[in-house]
Amino acid sequence: MAFRSRELFKKLIRKVGQDILALSVEESLKKCLPDEKCMMGRAKRGLYAGLHIQFGNQVSEDGGNKSYPLL
């Protein structure tokens, strides 16, 4: 479960109460929530697909960010 959906799940559990919900209802609620790491729909497109890039902006090991001379 992604961070945002996990927070939404916690918020629903707090409002309703964990004692009231059955285990099967909790599991079905988890299945309904999205399981994506990127939050914005626009971020799914693009170079990094909305994922957080750590350790620099390296795309590929062979240096994919090279600029080639125009002839």
Distance between the termini: 49 Å
Number of strands: 0
Instruction: Give the biggest beta sheet.
Output: none
Binned, the helix content reads 25-40%
CA-based shape: elongated
User: From the helix content, strand content and strand pairing, which structural class follows?
Assistant: mainly alpha
Show unreliable segments. Answer: none
User: Could you spell the SSE succession in H and E letters?
Assistant: HH
* β-strand amount: under 5%
Q: What is the count of helical runs?
A: 2
Average pLDDT metric: 68
Report the C-alpha radius of gyration, rounded. 20 Å
GO molecular function: structural constituent of ribosome
InterPro entries: Ribosomal_bL28
Describe this protein's structure.
By secondary structure, the chain is an all-alpha fold. It starts with a helix and ends in a 39-residue tail after the last helix. It has a domain at 3-44. It contains two helices and no strands.
